[in-house]
Here is the input.
Amino acid sequence: MRVILRTKPRKKPFIPIEAETIIPQNFLRKNDVRVYEGNKERRLEEIFYITTEGPAVSPDQVEIVLSGETGNIKRVGEYMNAGRIVVEGDIGMHCGNFMSAGEIVIKGNADAWLGREMRGGTIRCEGNAGHYCAAGYRGEKRGMRGGLVEVMGSAGDFTAEYLCGGEVRIHGDCGDLPGVEMRGGNLTIGGHCHRPCGNMTGGTCMVFGRVHDMLPTFRGAGNEEREYRGQRCQMMLYKGDAANRGKGSLLVKNIEQDGLSPKKK
Amino acid sequence: MKIDDVVCPFCGCLCDDLVVEVEGTRVVSVENGCTLANEKFMGDHRLKTPIHREGKGWKETTYDEAIRETAEILCDADRPLLYGWSGTHGEAQSIGIHLAEILGALVDNTSTVCHGPSILAIQEVGHPGCTLGQVKNRADVVIYWGTNPIDAHPRHMSRYTTFADGFFLKEAFRDRKLIVVDVRKSESANIADEFVRIQPGGDYAVLSALRAIVQGKRGIIPPSVAGVSREQLFRVADLLLSAKFGAIFFGLGLTMSRGKSKNIRNAIELTEELNRHTKFIISPMRGHWNVYGSNEVFTWITGYPYAVDFARGIAFYNPGETTSVDVLSRKECDACLVVASDPGAHFPKACAEHLARIPTVQIDPHVNATTHLSRIQIPVAVTGIDAEGTAYRMDGVPIRTRMLFRGTYPSDTAVLEQLYAIVKEIKGP
Here is the structure.
């Protein structure tokens, strides 16, 4: 089954839509799917033109395609456990929160908290991701625990904060403090970043670009060779963060102690 | 008439030893107050009656009309924002939150532009704190990090730290060691025993280094960390470790610089580390008078200290998403009620522009920058001068403020109660 949701023009387009109900399992039967526009509850038909093609007997066979002005739609794919969601443009905050299985493909940019506390499944963002990509919620001790988040562009500050498991790949640059409080899992950054892995206690982070302002509490532990996108790279291995238990691994290709603040994205 | 033990309604110190002389409905002199307190008591920029915008000008209106118009604006909105609250008393804040709940509004206080990141860090790792009385009587090492109390909290040093003799420190000025950490040499740094100048944005690295040193990992520290030499870091760490009782006070230099809540988390974890060796506490230098109280009242009622979104009937909290600056800069809200604060003066330009675009109503005694962005302004009594109520000091101690004279203005509580009743009537049961 393919469900195509195309946004209708809205009188107040800046008011976000909260749409955690947009997950494949809710479209298997003709459920009364509702979303919130500000403090007003709306039927899905009030916000989208809906087209349904073909049948499905399980959520795995459902694909949802979102198109139009989708950059302000939050929580799409929250608690998703099967099926596929394709976003033709940008997507709002909290896309794929807590998802445990299935696939989300975003062809534009994703706003903050992409894949927050995700347990499994795959999110692939072809544009850039906002702050707190694959991170935890406020006050939470564990962030993403499983699955894969892949961002082809860049990501904002605090990427993979509290990462506990699974894999995060950012092919572009990251902002400040990627992998902060990280305790497990793998974080790969293809581009540059600032101050990676502050207070990390476990897991592995690899930075194939340049690290600006490396934190002083990482201890050099030799060199290792790693592969990124088909190329073998000689990496410097650091163990840290020594301000904490210091059992994480940070592999870095280049370091620059320039003392400058990161550029605003 | 002279009134003793008056509580100052300006900053988070809530100094409660002021002597104020009143003649009729006017304050004529203030003793024991700092310059900021004097200006607050003696200043005279108060609006006489409610006003609302008509064309390009302002027209005077009545309280009843202004409050009804405000209620209608808020009820029509799909995403109203109720912002401010830190300059008023807890009783008014409480009504504001109930108002937000029935409106399905976002309600936020000024923590959003000051110590919000401190609260996020406290939610992650807790808060080893104490009252200012304990600091005054016990602390022999005091750090001011990213704050300049001589300018921002002028009596903090004389009432609680450097110049305040305590039960265990008979000659505080000589017995207490003072460390100031900042990016520039401030007035407070001039009187410090140790001034640590950090490169802008380098606080996180310096805090991490100090944590490692306190843990005994001195060998890992490079010759310089964010512009601070290894030798100075060792010296500061030794001072901290030698304290019988230490206190760290931090300000917006730490909360609003690069790293934000993670800076505070690192500072709290340094405090925890120091507590393995001696007694240490950490405390934020809250600026806006009853901002601590707004966090308390918000938390009692909603479970969250600021940036609470009632759009879906339940309280949701996510700073960065539900904070006023973010909501306004993304042009999300379509009406705003500002109570006891001045976002027009403190928010980024994009937020002020949006406030001017949407119907904004201000409940505030004074004409200020937000007045120029508003459609309606309702003047009220000033808590601590012509209204009474409860406020919280920066260390979480509640203090009852007094009404010094009975003026002609209604209190925030009276105006908000009337607004709440009208909104309830419009919304129905």
